[in-house]
Structures are given as structure tokens and as C-alpha cells.
Amino acid sequence: MTLSSTDCISKTIRMWYTGLVPKNYKRKPNIPCLVCGLPVYRRPSQITESKGNAFCSMACYGVFCRKERPCVVCGMMMLASLNKKTCSRNCANKNRTGIRYHLGSPRDKVKSIQALKIQLLKARGSKCERCNYDKHEILHVHHKNRNRNDNRLENLELVCPNCHYEEHCLTHGGLRRMVRQRS
């Protein structure tokens, strides 16, 4: 069977546009795919760049990149994420059994200051210790040495909001410093 020149031209054009390569131009595979083991051809420089990792398709590369680890409860393999330890809600509930949450209430700043205020009201009366303002609902607890952790009764005093503002903002810097800097 002889081929005419038009048949050869149409065959080469078809190969050119479709990307089909005749069998005699295909490279011999020189490395197996790491996932499925199919033989693949890669240039020697590509093999050294990828440290011997060669894949036959993007699907095999995706399988290779997939990081899996076992569930701590059932041991089933699952995708590894940052803090994921269990594969399902059921395993997570089994993993949490025996954990006791909220043992007592944590140290609450508001509750401790309210308790100090009640102690001071009982000990010293319900008036501001500086100006004798008598609405005990709005009185503040002031630390004389300005150390909030020093809650000895000798270090505390009950003051109204005006006296407390004067103490912090007028007598010890605050507005005076700001007025001096501007003038």
C-alpha cells in the first residue's frame, strides 16, 4: 500500500494539531510513578530537581501530597489538619468523656472587687472617706499605693467618683502634665 503526498501531509498536519506523536518518537520511560508505579519519562535534570519524585498525572501527585494520620479513638485514617484529632463527632464525644469542665469559678476581678467593697462598707460605713458623700451604690474602691494586687484593708479606701478622678487625674500628673506640655 502506497501513500500519496496528500495523505502524508494530512497525516502530519493531523499529528501537528492534535499533538499525536508517532510511536517511534516516544521516549522510553526511565522512572516509575511514586504512587501507582507506572513507568514515566522525565528529563534527568527534572529528576534531580524533584529529588527523584516523578508522577504520571496530577491525580497521583495529589494522592502523594495528601497528609493523613489516624484518629485517636478508632484509628481510621483521616486528613491531617492543624488540631484535628478525631475523624467524626462521635469519636470526639468518646475522646472527651471523663474531662471535667469548669471546676469552680475562675478568679473573677469584678466579684473580688465587689467583695472588697462590701467588706469596706461594713468596716468604715457607707460614705466617701474624703468628702462624706453618702450614696454607697456609686462609691469606688481606691488603692492608696496604686498596686491593684495589694488588697489589704489598710491600703484601701472608699471614695466617690469625683474624689477618685481627682486622685488619679489631677493630683498625680494626668491633666496637669497635659496642660504643662501644651503651654
How does this structure look, described?
This protein has 183 residues and is of the alpha+beta class. It has helices at 5-18, 44-49, 58-65, 89-96, 109-124, 161-171, 175-182, and strands at 31-32, 39-40, 68-70, 77-79, 140-143, 156-159. The strands form three sheets. Strands 1-2 form a two-stranded antiparallel sheet. A hairpin with a 6-residue loop joins strand 1 and strand 2. The model has no long low-confidence stretch (mean pLDDT 80).
List the helices and strands and how they pair.
Layout: H1 5-18, E1 31-32, E2 39-40, H2 44-49, H3 58-65, E3 68-70, E4 77-79, H4 89-96, H5 109-124, E5 140-143, E6 156-159, H6 161-171, H7 175-182
Antiparallel strand pairs: 1-2, 3-4, 5-6
